[in-house]
Write a structure and sequence with these properties.
The protein is of the alpha/beta class. The protein contains 11 helices and 11 strands. The strands form 3 sheets. It has a 6-stranded parallel β-sheet. A 3-stranded parallel β-sheet has the order 1-2-3. Helix 4 runs parallel beside helix 5 (152-160), helix 7 crosses helix 9 (224-237) and helix 9 (224-237) packs antiparallel against helix 10. The protein is globular and about 50 Å long. The two termini are 27 Å apart. This is Amidohydrolase-related domain-containing protein.
Length: 295
């Protein structure tokens, strides 16, 4: 299933899989649930329903969408957080059973500090609910990277299962989180959060310690293709045990999806950086309109 999943997400004229497609549970308010991040979802896309996604998919000629929910990157260890993840996964699984030819889903995990809860949810979501992988935030709590050593047991289990892991940048305000009303956190901060997550994975040796995990980076990896060489040179100089060549090699092991990044210049750059079979298709629906750039 792993190989067929990633192969099917390659851009194709015959069959199209959207690997970056969000769903929302019925309790989401129609207005922006978090206006502080400075993002406006197209009005016609909320309140979200599977029918709204199916209509958009038909217009964009998308055969299957892999549903994911924004990761639970804050919270506390406890039953409430576990219950939130379980509720979302069961809802997503129900949608997949209702529309088996149109939807698959990535499982939501509890707050990652709850390692035991995450391990339980991985087993339940994949074995019982047929999740095709898990989604992770770039960081958790007060800035712990998803690849922090405290989470090694989670990565060991994902590696054992040869899991697909979808990494999405966190909605974390930076030093200038909203430099302009039209430049909200998802525009200026999220791409760099994805880059930081990818870089932390590389310099801590995750692609080598957990080689069976297939990591998919949202939004073409954010700023990763532009800054990977900088990491290779300077991180080695700063004490990373990997050589610059090994660092670049490990960046190229990730999969990069096209959501909000499918512009000619961006695609040309990533095409020069990684193998074509590691470039996947994504839309970021319903957080965007239905007009997307794809070559």
């Amino acid at each position: 299933m792993l190989g067929s999943l990633l192969t099917s997400v390659q851009p194709s004229q015959n069959f199209c899989v959207d690997i970056h497609h969000h769903y929302f549970t019925p309790d989401l308010k129609k207005d922006n649930p978090n206006p502080s991040i400075g993002w406006k979802t197209p009005a016609e896309n909320l309140p979200w329903s599977p029918e709204i996604s199916l209509q958009a998919m038909d217009k964009m000629k998308i055969n299957v969408s892999i549903l994911s929910f924004p990761s639970l990157s804050t919270g506390s260890v406890g039953e409430e957080n576990r219950s939130m993840a379980r509720t979302k996964n069961e809802y997503a699984s129900e949608l997949c059973r209702e529309y088996p030819e149109r939807f698959m889903f990535f499982a939501t995990l509890p707050f990652l500090d709850d390692v035991e809860g995450c391990l339980e949810e991985i087993a339940y979501a994949i074995d019982q609910l047929n999740a095709c992988g898990v989604s992770l935030s770039s960081c958790y709590g007060e800035g712990q990277s998803a690849s922090d050593k405290r989470y090694d047991a989670v990565w060991e289990e994902l590696n054992r299962r040869q899991a697909v892991v979808f990494v999405h940048g966190s909605q974390i305000p930076g030093s200038t989180p909203c430099p302009h009303s039209s430049l909200g956190v998802p525009i200026t901060e999220v791409p760099n959060e994805t880059f930081k997550a990818a870089s932390h994975l590389v310099v801590t040796g995750h692609p080598r310690k957990f080689p069976n995990v297939k990591v998919v980076l949202a939004h073409l990896g954010g700023s990763t293709p532009m800054l990977a060489a900088r990491v290779a040179v300077l991180s080695n100089h700063m004490g990373c045990e990997l050589t610059p060549e090994e660092i670049l090699e490990d960046f190229k092991k990730f999969y990069y999806e096209t959501a909000l990044s499918g512009y000619e210049g961006s695609l040309a750059a990533v095409d020069k950086f990684i193998p074509q079979d590691h470039i996947l298709f994504g839309t970021d629906f319903p957080g965007n309109g239905q007009n997307i750039y794809v070559i």
